Amino acid sequence: MRESLKRYTGYRSYSYLDAGVDYQQFALAPEIGRVPAYSRLHLSDSQRVRTDRLLDESIVISLHEHPAVFPDPITDSVDYNRAGRHRTGYEGLAQSGLTAVFDNFMDGIACVTSQAGWKWTDILADLGMRFSDLAHQDLVLKAEKVADIRYAHESGRIALVPGLEAATPIENELDRIDILYGFGVRQMGIAYSETNALGSGLKERRDGGLTDFGRRAVTRMNKLGMAIDVSHSGDLTSLETIEHSTVPIFLTHAGARAVWGSLRMKPDSVLEACAERGGVIGIEAAPHTTMSLAHPRHSLESVMDHFTYCVDLVGIDHVAFGPDTLFGDHVGLHEVFAGHVSFDAVQGDLSYEKVDYVDGMENPGESFANIVGWLVSHDYSDEEIRAVIGGNILRVLEEVWVS
After folding, report:
1. Can you say whether the dihedral through the CA atoms of 374, 379, 384, 386 is positive or negative?
2. Which structural domain range is residue 370 located in?
């Protein structure tokens, strides 16, 4: 494992309180070493030096993660979520090489008061509780402007960008977007798998496109300076969002349907439209998503099949990474919350080999070292690597966010 250059001092979430007195304690998964390290890069000594240099010198951004630590056993997750105190994986993040991470919090599994998730009060409770913990440590800072990301890079910190995978909690209240922005949310999806007041989710049999309210919401997000994501939206809703937005949007965590035929992946038409309007595609790595016919066993290699396809399709200036990982048993979490994540509905009847974890992309602490190592081993230039591990995302944020 590479030595961390981050200013981590050993802080653990909510350690300013008394466990078992002020909050319910859970046994948590290890942030480092839960699974064996990826062993198939076979870098030479000079390639390892170059990989470490690029991680240390570059602004490295993950466009989509859930960098919380989940319970062990993972079946405790319902009770853990209902307690309302997700633990940030500070130790794991300190080893990650990341400068900034887009954190999407509990999202649809925010079941503090409701088993259905996505409730407004539960989302606010989740955001507020995590922010209260962030305020008690000095490694991770909440980022609301591009300058915050640059400051994190200069000072050896990690910038955490609050995001939500769908606008479902705003219901039909446009001003709730402003409230979320006031809380610090700087990126939000249109819809998750199920349709909401803004548009259709990707599991729906019929995609009704962006609604009139959805168009107004996109306009409001543009005015506020909140980045927009359509990773979980239907194809028509995605295209109409891209068309209606006056600034580039993100596919924060996606892949190419031409590589793997799941509805969770995006067709060329959406990938190309996103890029043509200046947007960026973050390549996904959550379990059993970005697989490929060449590498049907989900691993770093199959993830990079989606990367190379997208680079060939839209150009390297419009591709980045949003691995969508967490600290804990992600496969087991999908099983616990199968109805919430709608995995079977979007995967269809595709045949694949189930894995216990995505080798090489298992958690937010390890993914980018392996991504950069892969890019180095495949002879990408320093300029190209810096673009896809952060530079492309920064370019869009400089256009979208309030300076």
Report:
1. positive
2. 45-400
This model's pTM is above 0.85: yes
Q: How far apart are CA 355 and CA 211, in angstroms?
A: 38
d(CA 395, CA 247): 12
Q: Does 194 fall in a domain?
A: yes
In a domain, 301, yes or no: yes
Give yes or no for a contact between 271 and 280, defined as CB atoms under 8 angstroms apart. Answer: no
The answer to the question of residue 29 being in a domain is no
Could you give the number of structural domains in the chain? 1
Phi then psi for residue 278, to 5 deg, are 95, 5
Q: How many helices and strands, by DSSP H and E, does the chain display?
A: 16, 11
Answer yes or no: is 171 within a domain. yes
* pLDDT tens-digit series, residues 318-367: 999 999 999 999 999 999 988 666 656 566 668 888 999 999 999 999 99
Integer Cα distance of 242 and 147 in angstroms: 26
Long-range contacts of 301-308 (CB under 8 A, 24+ apart): 301/40, 301/360, 302/260, 303/255, 303/358, 303/360, 303/361, 304/371, 304/374, 305/259, 306/255, 306/256, 306/259, 306/260, 306/265, 307/283, 307/388
More reliable by pLDDT, 115 or 183? 183
**What is the spatial distance between Cα 31 and Cα 69, in angstroms, rounded to a whole number?**
7
The domain that holds 388 is classified in CATH as 3.20.20.140
